[in-house]
Amino acid sequence: MAGHAEVKLVSNAMANTTRRKIMNLLLEMDLSKEDIGKAVGQSMLDYHLQILQQAGLIKIENNVASLTDFGRNFLESKGEKSERIEIRDARPVEVVEVKQLLPCIADTTKFRIIARMDPPLGGALKALEPLFPRGRYSERIGALIIQKGTVLITLYGTGNVTMTMIRDEAHAREILEELKRTINDAIEKGVTPAPKEKVRVDPMEVYRYLPGTNCRECGEQSCYSFAIRLVSGEVGLEKCKPLQEDKYATRLEHLRSLLAYL
Ligand code: SF4
């Protein structure tokens, strides 16, 4: 990719807004052609993807597009990573599916749900962070994590949404509709509030989701001491062996999301 012709192919590929948006979406995660179309529009999508492929910036296998090593290096060297999708470029979302209602192990009277919002918001999710008083975008998992009372909502750039501690399906739909309204209002206005200070994670909140047996397998005196060390980043969740058991799977997932705030 060093010759004059190749350089021209790359600069031509990156000269177009839609193609730059596609590249930035793929920087967050691999996506199907369908999902890319939902995020950037179907107009000339095959053509844009072909231009990016010809420039060696992306590859498409089994209908899923991903950045090539060259494409990733190119974006990083150009600092394109900061050119995320702006909120004004995002399209209004719809709740298209509430996929599963599983018992929530943290509280068996509550449910855990998996839903989907379309089109996927990709990197624009980061711009939505200030809309939620207890919201935090995690680069690591490519998701916006929102705490609303005891409910923890994880909205992924792919459009998938998981929620824990839900009363019933009506409760889930109510939360999803409210989320949709907040997001679509911001998209319509094209602005979000200024970024706010980081949310503090309280060790007591973390403690509530640990097994609570004080078995000391982690080397700490109690689950609460372990929670303090987790919040300060000195230890990881893997140190609590009981937590890795199947029966604590939902708690573990909830804790992972909670600790992504840190
Ligand atoms: S290993 Fe887990 S359950 Fe046991 S004391 Fe440590 S945090 Fe609590």
Automatic annotation (TrEMBL):
The keyword Repeat does not apply. PROSITE patterns: 4FE4S. It holds the Pfam family FeS. Residues 196-257 form the 4Fe-4S domain. It comes from the Archaea. This is Fe-S cluster domain protein. It comes from Methanothrix thermoacetophila (strain DSM 6194 / JCM 14653 / NBRC 101360 / PT). Keywords: 4Fe-4S, Iron, Iron-sulfur, Metal-binding. One of its GO terms (molecular function) is metal ion binding. The keyword Iron-sulfur applies. CDD domains: HTH_ARSR.
